[in-house]
Design brief:
four-stranded antiparallel β-sheet
Length: 188
Protein backbone atom coordinates (compact mmCIF):
# COMPACT_ATOMS: atom_id res chain seq x y z
CA UNK A 1 0.00 0.00 0.00
CA UNK A 2 1.19 3.52 -0.67
CA UNK A 3 0.36 6.89 0.83
CA UNK A 4 -1.21 7.05 4.32
CA UNK A 5 -3.47 9.94 5.31
CA UNK A 6 -5.04 10.49 8.73
CA UNK A 7 -8.79 10.98 8.50
CA UNK A 8 -11.52 12.14 10.87
CA UNK A 9 -12.65 9.78 13.58
CA UNK A 10 -9.16 8.21 13.72
CA UNK A 11 -9.86 6.06 10.67
CA UNK A 12 -7.01 5.35 8.27
CA UNK A 13 -7.17 6.12 4.56
CA UNK A 14 -4.89 4.08 2.34
CA UNK A 15 -4.19 4.43 -1.38
CA UNK A 16 -2.35 1.82 -3.42
CA UNK A 17 -0.12 2.40 -6.46
CA UNK A 18 -3.18 2.10 -8.74
CA UNK A 19 -4.98 4.93 -6.93
CA UNK A 20 -7.51 2.65 -5.22
CA UNK A 21 -8.53 4.03 -1.81
CA UNK A 22 -9.80 2.20 1.24
CA UNK A 23 -10.94 3.69 4.52
CA UNK A 24 -10.06 1.54 7.51
CA UNK A 25 -12.37 2.13 10.51
CA UNK A 26 -10.68 3.09 13.77
CA UNK A 27 -11.42 -0.31 15.33
CA UNK A 28 -9.19 -1.93 12.66
CA UNK A 29 -6.64 0.90 12.46
CA UNK A 30 -3.94 -0.53 14.75
CA UNK A 31 -4.08 -3.92 13.06
CA UNK A 32 -3.69 -2.26 9.65
CA UNK A 33 -0.78 -0.12 10.90
CA UNK A 34 0.92 -3.26 12.23
CA UNK A 35 0.51 -4.93 8.81
CA UNK A 36 1.93 -1.83 7.09
CA UNK A 37 4.91 -1.70 9.44
CA UNK A 38 5.63 -5.39 8.77
CA UNK A 39 5.15 -4.93 5.00
CA UNK A 40 2.30 -7.44 5.12
CA UNK A 41 0.21 -6.38 2.12
CA UNK A 42 -1.86 -9.57 2.24
CA UNK A 43 -2.96 -8.58 5.75
CA UNK A 44 -4.13 -5.20 4.42
CA UNK A 45 -5.87 -6.95 1.51
CA UNK A 46 -7.63 -9.20 4.03
CA UNK A 47 -8.93 -6.18 5.98
CA UNK A 48 -9.95 -4.45 2.73
CA UNK A 49 -11.83 -7.52 1.49
CA UNK A 50 -14.13 -7.35 4.54
CA UNK A 51 -15.02 -3.64 4.15
CA UNK A 52 -18.20 -2.49 2.33
CA UNK A 53 -17.56 -1.91 -1.36
CA UNK A 54 -18.97 0.47 -3.94
CA UNK A 55 -21.35 -1.22 -6.37
CA UNK A 56 -19.21 -0.34 -9.39
CA UNK A 57 -15.96 1.46 -9.97
CA UNK A 58 -16.20 5.05 -11.17
CA UNK A 59 -13.47 6.98 -12.95
CA UNK A 60 -10.92 8.50 -10.60
CA UNK A 61 -12.63 11.26 -8.63
CA UNK A 62 -16.08 10.55 -10.11
CA UNK A 63 -19.11 9.40 -8.20
CA UNK A 64 -21.12 6.36 -9.18
CA UNK A 65 -24.82 7.04 -9.86
CA UNK A 66 -26.88 7.71 -6.73
CA UNK A 67 -28.83 4.44 -6.99
CA UNK A 68 -25.60 2.39 -7.03
CA UNK A 69 -24.14 4.37 -4.14
CA UNK A 70 -27.37 4.03 -2.12
CA UNK A 71 -27.14 0.23 -2.37
CA UNK A 72 -23.83 0.44 -0.46
CA UNK A 73 -25.22 2.56 2.39
CA UNK A 74 -25.51 0.43 5.56
CA UNK A 75 -29.09 -0.35 6.62
CA UNK A 76 -28.73 1.67 9.82
CA UNK A 77 -27.83 4.77 7.77
CA UNK A 78 -30.19 4.56 4.77
CA UNK A 79 -33.01 6.68 6.27
CA UNK A 80 -34.66 8.70 3.51
CA UNK A 81 -37.64 9.82 5.60
CA UNK A 82 -35.77 12.24 7.86
CA UNK A 83 -32.68 12.73 5.70
CA UNK A 84 -32.47 13.73 2.03
CA UNK A 85 -29.71 11.31 1.06
CA UNK A 86 -30.09 12.05 -2.66
CA UNK A 87 -29.44 15.77 -2.14
CA UNK A 88 -26.61 15.04 0.29
CA UNK A 89 -25.14 12.74 -2.37
CA UNK A 90 -25.35 15.54 -4.94
CA UNK A 91 -23.67 18.14 -2.71
CA UNK A 92 -21.31 16.26 -0.37
CA UNK A 93 -17.65 15.70 -1.27
CA UNK A 94 -16.90 12.15 -2.46
CA UNK A 95 -14.56 11.62 0.49
CA UNK A 96 -17.41 12.26 2.96
CA UNK A 97 -19.72 9.91 1.08
CA UNK A 98 -17.07 7.17 1.06
CA UNK A 99 -16.45 7.60 4.78
CA UNK A 100 -20.21 7.57 5.47
CA UNK A 101 -20.54 4.20 3.72
CA UNK A 102 -17.33 2.59 5.02
CA UNK A 103 -16.98 3.91 8.56
CA UNK A 104 -19.69 2.93 11.06
CA UNK A 105 -19.05 6.12 13.07
CA UNK A 106 -19.05 8.56 10.13
CA UNK A 107 -22.02 10.87 9.59
CA UNK A 108 -23.00 13.32 6.90
CA UNK A 109 -23.48 16.97 7.75
CA UNK A 110 -26.83 18.66 8.36
CA UNK A 111 -26.25 21.31 5.71
CA UNK A 112 -24.33 21.55 2.41
CA UNK A 113 -23.68 24.63 0.29
CA UNK A 114 -24.75 24.44 -3.32
CA UNK A 115 -21.84 26.05 -5.17
CA UNK A 116 -24.10 27.02 -8.09
CA UNK A 117 -26.56 29.04 -5.98
CA UNK A 118 -24.56 29.79 -2.80
CA UNK A 119 -27.56 28.47 -0.85
CA UNK A 120 -26.90 26.21 2.12
CA UNK A 121 -29.39 23.37 1.81
CA UNK A 122 -30.44 21.32 4.81
CA UNK A 123 -30.42 17.61 4.09
CA UNK A 124 -31.92 16.74 7.47
CA UNK A 125 -35.69 17.13 7.52
CA UNK A 126 -37.49 19.50 9.84
CA UNK A 127 -38.41 16.41 11.89
CA UNK A 128 -34.90 14.95 12.18
CA UNK A 129 -34.05 14.32 15.85
CA UNK A 130 -30.83 16.40 15.77
CA UNK A 131 -31.94 19.32 13.58
CA UNK A 132 -32.36 21.40 16.72
CA UNK A 133 -28.58 21.41 17.21
CA UNK A 134 -28.05 23.16 13.87
CA UNK A 135 -30.85 25.67 14.55
CA UNK A 136 -29.54 26.34 18.06
CA UNK A 137 -26.14 27.17 16.58
CA UNK A 138 -27.70 29.47 13.97
CA UNK A 139 -29.56 31.43 16.67
CA UNK A 140 -26.65 31.42 19.13
CA UNK A 141 -24.24 34.19 20.10
CA UNK A 142 -21.30 32.20 18.78
CA UNK A 143 -19.23 34.74 16.78
CA UNK A 144 -19.29 32.52 13.68
CA UNK A 145 -23.07 32.18 13.91
CA UNK A 146 -23.48 35.95 14.31
CA UNK A 147 -21.28 36.55 11.25
CA UNK A 148 -23.17 33.89 9.32
CA UNK A 149 -26.53 35.51 10.20
CA UNK A 150 -25.20 38.80 8.84
CA UNK A 151 -24.88 37.09 5.46
CA UNK A 152 -27.68 34.49 5.49
CA UNK A 153 -31.22 34.10 6.77
CA UNK A 154 -33.13 30.93 7.58
CA UNK A 155 -35.80 30.05 5.01
CA UNK A 156 -38.38 27.66 6.45
CA UNK A 157 -40.90 27.87 3.59
CA UNK A 158 -40.06 24.52 1.97
CA UNK A 159 -39.96 20.88 2.97
CA UNK A 160 -36.36 21.41 4.15
CA UNK A 161 -34.82 24.49 5.75
CA UNK A 162 -32.32 26.54 3.75
CA UNK A 163 -29.83 29.27 4.56
CA UNK A 164 -30.42 31.89 1.90
CA UNK A 165 -27.96 34.68 1.06
CA UNK A 166 -29.36 37.99 2.29
CA UNK A 167 -28.83 39.35 -1.21
CA UNK A 168 -31.53 36.93 -2.43
CA UNK A 169 -35.13 38.21 -2.68
CA UNK A 170 -37.11 37.68 0.53
CA UNK A 171 -40.85 37.39 0.66
CA UNK A 172 -41.16 35.96 4.17
CA UNK A 173 -39.72 36.65 7.58
CA UNK A 174 -36.92 34.85 9.38
CA UNK A 175 -38.33 32.85 12.28
CA UNK A 176 -37.15 33.73 15.76
CA UNK A 177 -35.42 31.22 17.98
CA UNK A 178 -38.60 30.98 20.06
CA UNK A 179 -40.80 30.28 17.03
CA UNK A 180 -38.42 27.53 15.89
CA UNK A 181 -38.46 25.95 19.35
CA UNK A 182 -42.26 26.15 19.38
CA UNK A 183 -42.52 24.45 15.97
CA UNK A 184 -40.05 21.74 17.00
CA UNK A 185 -41.90 21.09 20.24
CA UNK A 186 -45.14 20.62 18.27
CA UNK A 187 -43.36 18.30 15.81
CA UNK A 188 -43.90 20.62 12.87
Amino acid sequence: MGKRIEAEGNELVLRNEHGDIIIIPKNKRQRALNFLKAGNHKGIDNIASKLPKMASKAQKGDKVPFEEWYKTVPKDKNDTLSYNLRRAYELAPKEELDAFVNNPEAHLRSVYRDPKTNIYEFVKSKHHPTIKLELDWFHSNDPEAVQFRNEYYLDDSGEYYRYMPKAAPRTFSTPTRESVKKKLSKGL
